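Ticket #4471: structure output looks truncated?

Reporter: J.K.
Steps to reproduce: submitted the chain below (336 residues) through the standard prediction queue, then opened the result file.
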Amino acid sequence: MDYQVIWFILIAVLFTGFFFLEGFDYGVGMLFPFVSKRPEDRSLILRTIGPVWDGNEVWMITAGGALFAAFPHVYATMFSTFYLALFLMLVALILRGVAFELRTKEKCPCWQKTWDAAIFIGSIVPAFLWGVAVTDLAAGLPIAHNMIYQGNFLNLLSLYSILGGIVFVLVFAYHGASFLQLRLVDKGLLSRIQGLGKCAGGSAVIAYVLYLLLTMENTDLLARPCSLALFLATAVFFLLSLCLFAKKPGKNSFILGALAIASVTFGFFAGMFPRLMVSSLNPDWSLTITNASSTEYTLSIMTVAAFILVPIVLCYQIWTYYIFRKRLTADDPAHY
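Returned output as attached by the reporter:
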């Protein structure tokens, strides 16, 4: 197998891990203002992601680093294309991280409400922008023969890309509710989380159906059998997850939701292969794993390093989740 193909697959795996882990992370941040108005309940909800949220973001950094090293032309074009969107995302993520640390430093209700709003904004903005960016990549962007984006920020927003952002927000909100069901004990909170999860999940199903229709019209992803099968598998996994969640939420509904996120991410990459960025001006000007990659020598060194370090990182993250696997109660030590 070519090194370019190996790194295309590895980047797909990294983004799958990122959307799975950071998905419920964002979801918890989006939901917690609506679950309860009591400060102690909100603190309890944030403690479910407290030990892991910053570790989850490492997946985004790793995926970006891998993209830079393996496909530098894609990295350059993508970051110049989404410059403003990525800046907004970075500001939102910084605001979110600061809010986690500062919200309990003062007892004033206004102080905590302000940082609670920052966590909500810092969760929903990146989720929405990721949906817009992924949809734009699938639909194609005005990229010239010199690999330079020819549009502006407003050109990134269309009915299709905005719907993509909404789908990401709704799916992550459902994923967050599904995760909270595994980490909390309080029946009152669980009941409200289940109601919010069903609302987000049901809305996500409708939005996803519309998204598939627009994907069929605006891209060629569904023309590829492998990609089509994965997108349909996503619908099946998500519906099964939602049915289980509505009746008796637990591990099975969470796992099925995770499989839905994994299958739609792999479906996107399978539909894009061997392209990484599609040019809407001329298909021949698209950035592919061939014309945008590093040298064979660079990729060979990176491959050896990846096969040594990635399993170590995976083991560390699994161990972290194992340590913090127990359900939380109000009696557990509070930090957030």
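Triage note (M.O.): checked the attachment and the full token line is present. The longest strand covers residues 275-277.
Status: closed, working as intended.
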